[in-house]
Predict the 3D structure of the following.
Amino acid sequence: MNQTHVGQRLGRHKGGILSLAVLMLSLSAGCTQFDKNQVASREQSPQAQEAASTPLPESGKIKVMTTFLPMYLFTKAVAGTTADVEILVPPGTEVHEYQSTPENVKAIATANVLVKNGLGLEEFLDNTIKNAQNPKLSQINTTIGIQPLNEISPVEKTSKKEEEHADAEGNPHVWLDPVLAKQQVANIRDGLIVADPENKASYEANAIAYIKQLDSLNNQFQQTLQKTPNCTFITFHDAFPYLAKRYNLKQLAVVEIPEDQLAPTDVQNAVNAVKKYKVKALFSEPGVDNKLLKSLSKDLNLTLYSLDSLETGNTDPQYYFKAMQNNLQTLESACK
Ligand SMILES: [Zn+2]
């Protein structure tokens, strides 16, 4: 994978928050207060939308476009070989700030179904859909019925260059909680059945199998992480609040770290922010080569681990489980 490209992707992530996480061990118990004011349902349920009646391709299979990797993995798992599933944002390409291509417009113009994460993640979609002019396109918003989390802990700004970027619709990273992922899979299943009722049995059977795997992943996370109930962490990338909430990890703060054009004061601010929270380990993401994190880990004598937000990786539906198992092992080591 192209390291520079991934670095750029992560550098732009939500207005320059670097995709990294810091974990610390502390004795503090207590619960993080989550903002529960936000309600998930802003759109009609997929079931309520008109079923797709775009003419079927020659294969006789419906064409399903998905936005980015986790949506592809879940949809492919449910569709199997029954529907043709494609991806708009190639793995390794930034999704938050993604600019759609003419090929994306064409792909949506000929698709029967579009599967998205929602919660404001796919900002490029509105215009792309408008340009595709496909009135028969049926959309599946996989986060329907999921209560979004908003800012749950203080944000430490380490650079003036960072622009304010509020998640108006809540944090979008729901797919990193296996329990919420089950709901996303169920939403995809229901939407595919509406669009392609003939193949209902196949979508149902595939969804049952994948949800079963998600259940056992959830059990593993619960059993493993309940051994370290006081595991507290701060993040450089706000990708894990749903996972943290599910397994009683406690997120203390989000520390924003600039990646490009580091001024000495930026580095000093970052060092101070990390020191303030007495962290014992640092988390990076797979494929990320960050000088600041490396020097932080050296200066502060902290181990640098890797946590996967699944925004890049392999397109095999089983990749979700491999990546999440790795995340669990990492958390287990770091929380000890
Ligand atoms: Zn993200």
